Amino acid sequence: MLEALDTLTKNKQPFVAFKLPNAQEVNLYYQKDDQLHMTFDFSEAGFLMAPFADTDFYSYIPNTYSHRFDLPLANTVIRSGLTVPDENQNPFVALVQSALNEFENSDLKKVVVSRVLTVNAMEKNAAQTFQNLALLYPTAFVYYWQHPATGSWMGATPERFANVKDNRLHTIALAGTSTADEGQEAVWTSKEIDEQQLVTEAIEIALKTTFPSVETKVSTVESVQAGALWHLKTDVQAESQELSIAKVVKALHPTPAVGGVPKDTSTAFILENEGYDRKFYTGFLGLFNGDSNADLFVNLRCAEITSKGYNVFVGAGITPESDPMNEWRETQRKAKTFCKAL
Q1: pLDDT at 335
Q2: Handedness of CA 200, 202, 203, 208 (dihedral sign)
Q3: Structural domain boundaries of the chain?
């Protein structure tokens, strides 16, 4: 697998390698030219890569040419020992404070703010980093995307965006972040519990607004582990003859777990205050086969590959109970998820 990915990387050939949650194999889709394929109605099939920004056109790599590799043993992880850079603290703390001020002046209830860490690792092998991610995070959706027109990206996300099949939709409300000692579950405060409930309710409202006849089923809240972090999660399921990928995307993206509540107010705050382009971070990605069959994930715990290393993206959900320094520390912990694989 590493040799094949190295060759594609060096040739700057469009490809995507990915591992589904709990899978033991890696799938590879690749192109024999450098055409940028775009879809607006999801009628094609392949691997989709969508940005955070609102758009009607989405890039994808067709499944015309494909291959499958078995994952090696977990003891093949090779790490560099790189540490998470301690940078941009003051601007991020100021950004969180701006969000706290906004709660008093608008209808904003939650907003996810983010930042970028520059990790210099020019000598590190990207294919090995991808393999490390796949082995370190078996329950995550892990991917490595390359296209000359979009740049190269890699990540290990714990969050499903939408699974649509046979007129059934499965999505999740994942919010709140904590840590715990080995063998122990996280202890949650009212801040995380309220944040997760906001996300769940916003998803329900979005689905019922777009699909008035739909009946949603929401599971009880559970604690789930993603690497060294814990999150609160509820499963949301719906069934309707009206379901389509295009409608689901417009209803849910960006989810309140990566944008905020209300959607319009939080998105406007992000665009006006973050000070950088998220690009594909907090977009969605994954498999689709026509407008009624898809398995898509939110692009979290990810990085853009640069000529010098990686731009690692991290964020935190801000509510009126947030403490700016605590949120800064949360983003540092999240950055370790990706950097651990370097």
Answers
A1: 93
A2: positive
A3: 2-74+86-171+262-339
Cβ neighbourhood burial of 70 (10 Å; 0-12, 13-18, 19+): exposed
Backbone CA torsion sign across 228, 321, 162, 338:
negative
Long-range contacts from 200-203, C-beta under 8 angstroms, 24+ separation:
200/173, 200/234, 200/236, 202/256, 202/261, 202/262, 202/263, 203/171, 203/173, 203/236, 203/252, 203/255, 203/256
Q: From the CB of residue 157, how many other CB atoms can be counted at a distance below 10 Å?
A: 24
Q: Which two tokens stand for residue 41?
A: 């109605």
Across 305-334, average pLDDT: 95
**Which one-letter amino acid corresponds to residue 324?**
P
Flag whether pLDDT at 31 surpasses 80.
yes
Residue 301 backbone dihedrals phi, psi, to 5 degrees: 50, 50
Q: pLDDT tens for residues 180-223?
A: 877 788 899 999 999 999 999 999 999 999 999 888 999 999 99
Q: Is the pLDDT of residue 81 over 70?
A: no
Q: Which CATH number fits domain 2-74+86-171+262-339: 3.50.50.60, 3.60.120.10, 3.30.70.3040, 3.30.70.260?
A: 3.60.120.10
The 10s digit of each residue's pLDDT in 231-260 is: 999 999 999 888 999 999 999 999 999 999
SS3 289: strand
- The yes-or-no verdict on residue 61 having pLDDT over 90 is yes
List the beta strands (DSSP E) in the chain.
Answer: 15-19, 25-30, 37-39, 45-50, 58-62, 65-70, 110-120, 141-147, 151-157, 160-165, 168-178, 215-218, 222-226, 229-239, 260-261, 284-289, 294-298, 302-305, 309-318
From residue 158, how far is each of 39, 118, 175 by CA, in Å? 25, 22, 11
Residue that wins the pLDDT comparison between 170 and 229: 170
Instruction: Give the pLDDT of residue 86.
Output: 80
pTM higher than the cut 0.90: yes
Residues 210, 212, 214, 217, CA torsion sign: positive
